[in-house]
């Protein structure tokens, strides 16, 4: 947890988004107060670093501050209503993230073919503007006065072209993979044949060595006989 954020779990206040009047306070130095803070915070904070962590003033009762708004030495954080302290922007972002997560979860269940088919069926039911090219610059980007519908259609067109290119790459890669697999099988077959040939050559060499040894013995015998 950064020292710029409130250490209390589910409290999204930090020094950048805090409302006016909200202050941040370091953990106490005194050991007796640390024990009291720990008693209250041990289940409220994901991470609590005594040297860096900060607790925002929303977790202290009003009586914990003096008339100048300074935190009293004996103050202990006791307010932990996460819903009351949840930052509205954070809530909106979390709802959007949750929505995206649910959509992604549904889309992940569909195969690539099903997604492509659904896209094509949806596009076939929609009417494409007849003057899309008039809304595009020379760099194939939308002009500033392009209506939202035309912008979406241009985006759809670009996505469709991209999908087509990607499918072509998939087909090419599939062919490359098949070729590599074929070459690998041929290499394995060639290796196996080579290994068999090596074993055959080893056997032939062994037989020749045995015959050579036999011939050498016969030569020794003949030499001995002749010398007598």
UniProtKB/TrEMBL annotation:
InterPro entries: THAP1/10, THAP_Znf, THAP_Znf_sf. It comes from the Eukaryota. GO terms for molecular function: sequence-specific DNA binding; zinc ion binding. Its main location: nucleus. Belongs to the THAP1 family. SUPFAM superfamilies: Glucocorticoid receptor-like (DNA-binding domain). It holds the Pfam family THAP. This is THAP domain-containing protein 2. Keywords: Cell cycle, Coiled coil, DNA-binding, Metal-binding, Nucleus, Transcription, Transcription regulation, Zinc, Zinc-finger. It comes from Papilio xuthus. GO terms for cellular component: nucleoplasm. The keyword Cell cycle applies. Residues 1-80 form the THAP-type domain. It is found in: Nucleus, Nucleoplasm. Residues 177-225 form a coiled coil.
